[in-house]
Amino acid sequence: MLSRNRLATGTNVHKGPQLKTSGRIQSVRYQSLPYDRHRLSNEHRSGRGTSISFDFLNYALTNYIEPEHLALAVYYMFLFKITNGERDICIGMNTHTRYKDKLKSIIGLYESFIPLRCQLDRHGSFHELVEYVQEMATNCIKYSYFPLQHILAQHSDCPKPTFLDIFLDFITIEKKIMIGDSELCSIPLSIAINEDEDVNKFDFILTIQYDLNINQFSCIINASLDLFHQETINKISRQFHSILYDLFTSVNDKMKNK
């Protein structure tokens, strides 16, 4: 969901992040997921989607890895696999929090998203990928206060970047926030309309929920039925589960042998 915040006026305060983000957007190539169908640039989106969800074991944070960065690294590895080795991958990711606490009082608390581009080393280890993602994401989040839709509006003659339809939604679940008898909850990026279908605004989303109360990750894959068959998403979800199992079993075994 794009942010709706108001920014303080100024002369060149946003020039740096504009140029950095704009240049990153314009140089990104089209990423081809294993779609069953293709949508024309002017074709109407039906909004129909499908969702696959499952849980996986907690990752031992002995290497002081932020859970959000770990999730991002896993997602890049997953996309690398299902795109037949695409090394230059750019996705959209939500930014529920601000880079610096002092900015909250200036800009307010809002939810926006930023493009995150990763150029993978096919011969590198997963730990090296995590370290690279940590540095890349930390640098990019510094400019998250400048809404992406403002940058895109300055290039209205260009079509919407396709990578913005591939998304990572990372949600941290803390203690319940109650207002009277009502619980305050965030609005999901997709809404279930029956057992097999969602109302979906993206082509492909991985939602990772990190529950601090029980220290557990939960994953949900949402995909557009305009582009994928239900059977294809079932297959992709099994691939994701297999990657997670192989990856974290290997990591846990190495940690036990230290």
Could you characterize the architecture of this molecule?
The longest helix is centred in the C-terminal third of the chain and has 27 residues, at 230-256. The protein has helices spanning 15-26, 67-82, 104-107, 126-141, 148-153, 230-256; strands at 48-56, 88-95, 112-119, 166-173, 177-179, 182-184, 190-192, 198-200, 204-211, 216-224. It has one domain: 2-Layer Sandwich (Chloramphenicol Acetyltransferase), CATH 3.30.559. It has six helices and ten strands. Residues 1-14, 53-57, 104-110 and 191-195 have low confidence and may be disordered. The chain is α+β, with helices and mostly antiparallel strands.
Q: Which key features would you list for this structure?
A:
alpha+beta; 258 residues; catalytic activity; two-stranded antiparallel sheet; disordered N terminus; eight-stranded mixed β-sheet; Condensation domain-containing protein; single chain; 31% helix; Condensation_dom; Chloramphenicol Acetyltransferase
CATH top-level class: Alpha Beta
Which secondary-structure class do the elements indicate?
alpha+beta
The residue ranges in which pLDDT falls below 50 over 5 or more consecutive positions are 1-14, 53-57, 104-110, 191-195
| Order of helix and strand elements from N to C terminus | HEHEHEHHEEEEEEEH
Shape: globular
CATH homologous superfamily placement: Nonribosomal peptide synthetase, condensation domain
Domain count: 1
Helical run tally:
6
Distance between the termini: 43 Å
CATH topology: Chloramphenicol Acetyltransferase
